[in-house]
Amino acid sequence: MAIKVHGSLLSTATMRVLACLEEKELDYEFIPVNLRAGEPKKEPFLSLNPFGQVPVLEDGDLKLFESRAITTYIAYTYAKNGTPLISQDPKKMAMVFVWMEVEAQRYENAAAKLTWELCIKPITGRATDDAVVEEYEAKLATVLDVYEDRLANSKYLGGDCFTLADFHHLPTLNYLMGTKIKALFDSRIHVNTWCADILARPAWKKAFAMKDNK
What we know:
four-stranded mixed beta sheet; alpha+beta; 4 strands
């Protein structure tokens, strides 16, 4: 059975999963979920994710939600396909897990808030809260200072190879590159180089192009 992804192209979490499938060169069926119509909060979607959030992945009889859990599943289950996004070395993988946690617990907190205020709100006709932007811009700057130190000594966050630790940043990073927050990344030389590298990945470009072709 083909892999199915239920989601929205406006959702950073959905884009994370779609790009992962592209990195692994896997065939899949994308099933759009209308966020504005409230479809995630209704049946039949709630039978897939009781929390009413996209995306959901179906692979045979397995149903998964939470985008990082999905990408980790894909990376392990289809390890021999496409780009290796994990390491088979336990110590190297431990370091990847560290930076996956940093992304999820520290970077995402600020980046998602800024994406919402500066990108999603304007698309949906809502006003940006400048005070929130100022608060989370400062928080993101603190995180990126740590990234700059790490990337001065390592090509990628998890080590010498591109892994899930880098990959998970792509959806919010792509949004923020079109805002004034880009200056935070540009002003840190190693972070800037890293951003240019991962944003240029063909799999990400292919997944992102789906927005233009919808």
